[in-house]
Amino acid sequence: MSRKNTSRRLDLRKSVFKNKLTFPAFFLIVILAGYLIFHNISSEKIIEAKPNNLNIIEDNADTVNNIDHSTDNIDMIEAKKSSIAEAVNSSDKSEPKTTLINDNRGVPVLYYHSVRESADNEVTITPKLLRTELQYIRDEGYVTLTLSELKAYILNNSPIPTKSILITFDDGYMDNYDNAFPILKDLNMVATIFCITSNLDGSYYLSKEAIDEMSHYGIDIESHTVNHPKLNKMTYDEQLSEFIDSKKTLESITGKKIDSIAYPFGDFNDDSIKAAKDAGYTLGFTTKKGLSDRDDNPLKLDRIYISSKYDMDTFKEILNKTKK
Ligand SMILES: [Zn+2]
């Protein structure tokens, strides 16, 4: 561009002298040329400063083709600048949901359990490490989806933000409210909690009040059965009542439809899938490693286990390398 601008400036100067324009007119033209050059440099600075946003834009194939192969076209450069400005502006907000994809690349659905100071087991993560991991997710430009957004993507072909992710917690421990919920609020993220409904008294598992408050905030509250049994050792009818009873309990607390379930221990059989469907669930989550995508049976969606023993390098690798 700078070469073109320079030659344009020379052309302007020649025509100025040829036509014997007055000095103020020449001065105005010089200002205009300077403005054009400056504008160009500033837009390049924005690209350097916001690598994530550039990635977001690059996922929009139409825009990118225009940008990369037409850099000598002023209109295209203006379009590029406004796209970048849009991406930059949207990244200032908590949820940059503006740039969407609609292919079947799938969505990482992370699952955690307990969140409190270390009990030295891999399903209990410290609030500090959880915050570090969620902050990383946010800094990488991920958008946390609600379950209905995932459902619309999987079942109805709806588009989702380029970097979408679901954060889920299994079992419904009271410490999720005490320790994870404040972090999620701080980072302006949403998540899903799959609750065991047998003892919702706030001592070990969540209290009804905590469930209600988080549900109002936008945390999805969903089922993890009543008693956390090994489903594949149960009859169809036994499984059906685990699914129906936990659903009713949670619906009575939240006043919202409960239509997703995570199978305890990731154990299930064909009866589980049938019973889940018959009980009115549309999404079911397993512990099989992978992304949730449209090729999965919606009642057997893959997730990604996050152990509290992972260091940040391991966490990043698992997040970035897990395939469908
Ligand atoms: Zn569980």
Automatic annotation (TrEMBL):
The chain crosses the membrane at residues 21-38. Pfam families: Polysacc_deac_1 (PF01522). It is found in: Secreted. Its main location: secreted. InterPro entries: Glyco_hydro/deAcase_b/a-brl, NODB_dom, Polysacch_Deacetylase. It comes from the Bacteria. Keywords: Membrane, Signal, Transmembrane, Transmembrane helix. Residues 163-324 form the NodB homology domain. This is Deacetylase.
